[in-house]
Amino acid sequence: MCGIVGYIGEQQAYPILIKGLHRLEYRGYDSAGVSLISENGDLNVYKAKGKVVALENGCKGQDLTGTIGIAHTRWATHGEPNQVNAHPHYSESRNLALVHNGIIENYKALRTELENNGMTFCSETDTEVLVQLIEYMMKSHNCDLFEGVQLALKNVIGAYAIAILEKKNPDQLVCARKGSPLVIGVAKKSDGHVEFFLGSDATPIIEYTNQVVYLKDEQIAIMDRKGRLDIVNLSSVHQTPQLDTLQLNLDQIEKGGFPHFMLKEIWEQPNALRTCIRGRLNPTDKDVILSGVLDHQDRFLNCRRIIICACGTSWHSALIGKYFIEEACQIPVEVEYASEFRYRNPVIFPDDIVIAVSQSGETADTLAAIELAKEKGAFLYGVCNVIGSSIPRATNSGTYLHVGPEIGVASTKAFTGQVITLSMLGLAIAKVRKTLSDDMFHMLVDELYQIPDKMQWTLENNKGIDKFAERFTYCKNFLYLGRGYNYPVALEGALKLKEISYIHAEGYPAAEMKHGPIALVDEEMPVVVVAPKHGMYEKVVSNIQEIKSRGGKIISVITEGDTTVKEMSDYYFTIPDTRDCYVPLLAVIPLQLLSYYVAVTKGRNVDQPRNLAKSVTVE
Ligand code: M6R
Fold first, then answer.
1. Of 63, 199, 544, 569, most Cβ neighbours within 10 A?
2. What is the CA(140)–ligand 1 centre distance, in A?
3. What is the CATH number of the domain that holds 7?
């Protein structure tokens, strides 16, 4: 939820840390801070409420020297977003400064204990409790920082990724994680010197090195200026650092001429999906090869049921996955909000397969849901984008989206990446279970392969949305309707509009409209209807009539060449024809663009909407 950056080496740390914070700002942006051990040995902390630029402004004229430092961009959990609650937090003696991503659940009890021992606190945060606890352990056990961290973390309940500086020891940087991600970049220079970079993900690191170590749960790492990287777990067992090579380049995390990451990511979808299907969909043999399924064929052959757990946009793609897998594989599929599932003692059989869908692979509720399913013996499958994140590591098998980093808080290419991956998964399972005829299987593979080109067509042929969106800037409510595969598209369109423009919007199955929401329809109410020439087309046409006769404004998504709905609509977007089950991959694109342009016209911060963060690593 928050972003952590760190550096130790020969370079000045401040510019590296600030650049890293800008890269991680999508994770949280209500306050930011930096700590450096200066050239004359001071442990300085500078913090500001608001975005990283506010921190930079506040730092002007300060001593920003130092070749070791940590920094943080915050999404508040405990304590309002202000300067005092911003990280880094000092320990009482100011010998330590610490940044933290996660939640210390027993922080109140720990704070009371520390206060009873005479310690005083400045902030309302759980993080300050952690740094004070480390200092308390160091003093009461007369031990060094590493041992102090180890002792403190043994008393902590909750999730953390932390990085700590010690004034008395300016040549080492210490970090640890449990439940929140932390990546260490290792850069070996030609003169033999080694420098270390820290990040909540790899985006602040890629500029300097592609060699990284993903810290694992309950590991503590010590990095020093001599190039030493020691990793030890909470039980003092030394761990061999596993060096991975990043599959990421700088272009992927920059805007590349687009005004916002969201717009860049919308336009990236055709290529992102081409990468996603590469080596998996074979257009010549009309085949699908997913190693995650092939390696566990018996599981898929004998499974009784599939449960998909997800949150937000990923829940919407999961719903489309359910429709597809049930139709293609004849297996019952349930879709669960991970946050509900984890707390209601669900019935899970050992022959169930539980699929976690998550862009970040770090969503706390989704992770907890699969941990619960693991305890009950289910087989776990991950559908995630971020390589090496917690969910892929916690599952038995899975498929990465490979759509590249998604930086905009509003999910776009991850949504379509999830839908196409779940479609490939459905086809792969159908192949194992022989539930589709060869003809049908080949036709579905063939058509899925065409989708990236049809997405490109959709983008090229809906270019006027920016002008047209202006007319809806002043609307207070929107209704989104769809049926069958397009009901989740209506949900997703409504979520996109809500989260970046702050206009209230609801997604509904079109036929449910008569059971309540139709009462909202009047001349002020735009109703977005996903109405491709498929499935229940005639019925959707009737729904449109019902809205029109009550004065509602119709914005439709129609199949190219459909004149009936076109003539009934006040505005329309066109998509090329495809199979019913693949329409969501195309129909969502104009809805993404509509929400984008409405939000831009309203002057919203599209990439960093208020109160939101890209990955929700806390409950
Ligand atoms: O990383 P995840 O896919 O697990 O995230 C789940 C939701 O927080 C996420 O999809 C959220 O709803 C989107 N940012 C909305 O656009």
1. 199
2. 43
3. 3.60.20.10
Beta strands in 77-182 (DSSP E): 89-90, 96-104, 158-166, 172-178
* pLDDT score, position 610: 85
Average pLDDT, the chain: 93
What CA–CA distance (Å, rounded) separates 158 from 179?
8
Ligand 1 midpoint to CA 313 (Å): 5
Task: Compute how many other C-beta atoms are within 10 angstroms of the C-beta atom of residue 611.
Answer: 9
State the CATH number of the domain containing residue 421.
Answer: 3.40.50.10490
Among 312, 311, 417, 316, residue whose Cα is nearest residue 369 = 311
**469 and 551 housed in the same domain:** yes
Task: Tell which phi-psi region holds residue 94, choosing left (phi > 0), alpha (psi between -120 and 50) or beta.
Answer: left
Is the residue at 140 inside a domain?
no
333 shares a domain with 265: yes
**CA–CA separation, 483 and 612 (whole Å):** 29
| Pocket perturbation via mutation, ligand 1, pick of 201, 260, 309, 313 by most ligand atoms within 8 A of CB | 313
- Work out whether strand 238-239 and strand 305-310 pair parallel, antiparallel, or are unpaired: unpaired
Domain final residue pick, 460, 479, 495: 460
Long-range contacts of 555-558 (CB under 8 A, 24+ apart): 555/526, 555/527, 555/528, 555/529, 555/594, 556/528, 556/529, 556/530, 556/531, 557/528, 557/529, 557/530, 557/531, 557/532, 557/587, 557/590, 557/591, 558/531, 558/532, 558/533
Q: Does 469 lie in the same domain as 451? A: no
SS3 call for 535: coil
Domain contains 380: yes
Of 460, 475, 495, the one marking the end of a domain is 460
Instruction: Assess whether 288 and 424 both reside in one domain.
Output: yes
Q: What angle do CA 313, 383, 317 make, to 5 degrees?
A: 30
CA–CA separation, 245 and 425 (whole Å)? 27
Do 299 and 392 sit in the same domain of this protein? yes
- The residue ranges of DSSP E strands in 202-279, in sequence order, are 211-214, 219-224, 229-233, 238-239, 244-245
- Ligand 1 site: residues with CB under 6 angstroms? 311-314, 358-360, 363, 366, 409-411, 495, 499, 615-616
529 plus 398 within the same structural domain? no
- Is residue 608 a part of any domain in this protein? no
Contact 15, 9 (CB under 8 A): no
Q: Which residues carry out catalysis? A: 2, 614
Ranges of the chain with pLDDT below 70: 618-619
Number of structural domains (the chain) is: 3
State the pLDDT at residue 348: 94
pLDDT attached to residue 326: 98
Cα–Cα distance measured from residue 506 to residue 523, given in angstroms and rounded to the nearest whole number? 17
Considering the domain architecture, whether residues 183 and 290 belong to the same structural domain is answered as no
pLDDT score, position 618: 67
Say which residues have a Cβ less than 8 Å from residue 26's Cβ, sequence separation at least 6: 3, 261, 407, 408, 409, 607, 608, 613, 614
What's residue 165's pLDDT? 98
- Domain extent, residue 546, equals 465-601
Contact assessment for residue 227 and residue 10, using Cβ atoms and an 8 Å cutoff: no
Examine the domain organization and report whether 277 and 357 are in the same domain.
yes
Residue 191 domain flag: yes
Residues 6+ apart with CB under 8 A from 542: none
Name the closest-CA residue to atom 12, ligand 1. 312
As a residue count, the chain comes to 619
Q: What is the pTM of this model?
A: 0.83
Helices (DSSP H) in 60-144: which residue ranges?
Answer: 107-116, 126-140
